[in-house]
Amino acid sequence: MKLTFLVDNNTRSDLTPEWGLSVYIQYGEHTLLLDTGASDTFAKNAEMLGLPLEQVEFGVLSHAHYDHSDGMETFFAKNPTAPFYLQAGCGENCYHGDAYIGIRKGTLEAYQSRIECAEGTVSPLPGVTLLPHSTPGLGAIGEKAGMYVLENGVRRWDSFDHEQSLVLETEEGLVVMNSCSHGGALNILREVGEAFPGKHICALIGGLHLYDSPDETVEELASALKEAGVDRIYTGHCTGDRAIELLQKVLGDRVVQIYTGMVLEFA
Are the CB atoms for 227 and 197 separated by under 8 Å? Predict the structure, then answer.
């Protein structure tokens, strides 16, 4: 399996970074796309890398925020057939304080024929699983973060029922991709462990949403992740440079910072 990061906040080449995430996934003979970043930048970078978006069989939206979904229109233009999997909890209704941070208004209606709503756990192909949150009480995390959804004019704290993990089975173990981990990295690892009992998690990949977290919070998470026994944590986007520094202090080279154009391979 080969993962190529089409978009991340950072870059080490002439590829363009942005606040967002998009990953081109070559899984055996299948090609998938996780997220589309915040613009058409992912598509421009894919072209520079020689990665054809028209060969993508299906896309996966990690959660209903603009920095992962605003390139969807570009994807649909580049690829006329591939569906995009969203959790059924996805809507155009996510806010952070007074700011709208959700899917661009009108997208879900305009492209309803291309969107597959995943009701719970879904396996689009063997070895690939879309796993929603099963942890109760995640609205408390939304409240702490000041994130809410607007439903029929009524606010409720975001419980991240629109967020899903992409779990890929490899010979090395499970590769767990969750682009922002709003529901909590430890909750995600526990959910995957419950869904795949006895299977080893070899990698956790994606943002950890720690960019505005105090050092103590990051250090506590780092210690807990150390005990969790995941081989590698590849993180970036919303994790933040300071948080990555603290994670590496505790976990050493088990924590690797991702960047636009980075390639990871798993057996």
Answer: no
> Would you say 235 and 254 are in contact if contact means Cβ atoms under 8 Å apart?
no
Written as six digits, the tokens of 46 are: 């894919």
Task: Output phi, psi for 95, to 5 deg.
Answer: -135, 150
User: What is the Cα–Cα distance from 169 to 28, expressed in whole angstroms?
Assistant: 11
CB 32 within 8 A of CB 58: yes
Report how far residue 19's alpha carbon sits from residue 239's, in angstroms, rounded to the nearest whole number: 11
At 156, list the tokens: 């409720």
Residues 6+ apart with CB under 8 A from 204: 176, 178, 185, 188, 189, 225, 230, 232, 233, 234, 235
- Whole-model pTM over 0.85: yes
Q: Residue 158's pLDDT is what? A: 98
**Mean pLDDT of all residues in 151-176:** 97
Q: What token pair was written down for 106? A: 């009108």
Total length of the chain: 267
Decide: 33 and 22 in contact? Cβ < 8 Å: yes
Nearest Cα to 30, choosing from 125, 117, 121, 118? 125
Q: How many CB atoms lie within 10 A of CB 25?
A: 22
Query: Measured between alpha carbons, how far is 141 from 146 in angstroms, rounded to an integer?
Result: 9
How confident is the model over 86-95, as pLDDT tens digits? 999 999 999 9
Which tens digits make up the pLDDT trace of 198-225?
Answer: 999 999 999 999 998 999 999 999 999 9
